[in-house]
Amino acid sequence: MNNSNQTLRISGLVQTELELTATQLAVDIDAEFQVADIATLLPKRTGAAVQLQGLLQLCVPAPEATHIGLHGSLDDFHASIPLAAVCDRGLIVHHLEGAILSVDQGGPFRFFIPDHAACQMDEIDECANVKFLDHIEFTVGKGHDNRPQDEQQHAALHAEQD
Ligand SMILES: Nc1nc2c(c(=O)[nH]1)N[C@H]1C(S)=C(S)[C@@H](COP(=O)(O)O)O[C@H]1N2
Ligand SMILES: [Mo]
Which of 101, 131, 135, 150 to mutate to test the pocket of ligand 1 (most atoms within 8 A of CB)? Predict the structure, then answer.
């Protein structure tokens, strides 16, 4: 399933829609936005990432855009969160130990928010650390979001994965 052609599509309310490979995320986004290993920011996580801020500089969201939609097509998982709350801290992992992410590792791309809230405690919760990320979309108002809404749904989702 490791396919170096896998891309991250950026669409919606942006000046420039994009479709980027892991290599493009690593090379086309300025070095100042690259994080060599997110372990420095998220103690239990690892991987090379780009700060969301760097991606925003490339695509330039419209001023009206309020939410960022994080889509994981593989398992049809979606989160839509306020852009202002994550624009300075969101991270997109694009490589792990020098290779693109496999599905087992949450690939093609994985979103992480340092200092997220516990699951379901806030809009910006751990559940918004979207795996299998392949599409980011900017919207006015909240977009499609099917994160679990109660403890039972959450437990059921985790039971499916473990
Ligand atoms: N694509 C996708 N991303 C997902 C999920 C999911 O089911 N599918 N679960 C979310 C939930 S509810 C949580 S709490 C975290 C768990 O991340 P972890 O398994 O890396 O600890 O991933 C989030 N990202
Ligand atoms: Mo969660």
Answer: 131
Q: What is the pLDDT of residues 27-61, one digit of tens each?
A: 999 999 999 999 999 989 999 999 999 999 999 99
Give all strands (DSSP E) within 64-124, no chain letters: 67-72, 77-82, 91-95, 110-112
* Alpha carbons within 13 A on the beta-carbon side of 146: 8
In whole angstroms, what is the distance from residue 103 CA to residue 137 CA? 21
Is domain 8-161 in CATH 3.10.129.10, yes or no?
A: no
- Ranges of each domain in the chain: 8-161
Distance between Cα 119 and ligand 2 center (Å): 4
pTM: 0.96
Q: Which residue has the tokens 């809230």?
A: 117
